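Researcher: Next entry in the queue.
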Amino acid sequence: MPIIRACSLAAAILLFTAVSPAAACMHAQSRSCIVGKISNCSGAAYVQSGPEAAPAKMPAPSTKAYIESNMKMHHGMAIPFSGDADVDFVRGMIPHHEGAVDMAKIVLEYGQDKKIRKLAQGIIKAQEREIKMMNQWLAAHAVPVQPGTMNPAHHH
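Model: Structure for this entry, 156 residues:
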């Protein structure tokens, strides 16, 4: 089965929603990340995850939010490496931390456990502080902020 370039979000859409395989495949072809084996994108596409794929079911709203957050984070972490370990670390960690903040906000919206909610609040505070510090470090070292990362002035 050929591997085509596809976006992880398209595979997630196909696996976790009622979107037709052909529609997910068309969406996948418009992206540039390799996510899996997608066969026959002319209309009879499917993602094979085992001998027999389970029927698609609608995910919980929190699951959809986590999928979107993860796709955004992984896309942001796909940086062009510079060869400077410090710069590459900071550029990769900013979207990683932004992903942690997004996930914490999702659990605050949908989660029920008081301990987890408190943990999420602490994660937001700590990660936002570190994002700010990393953006300041990049600016102090005349390194442009990676496109697609959050501007610290707009981060809540």
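Model: The longest strand covers residues 34-39.
Researcher: Noted, moving on.
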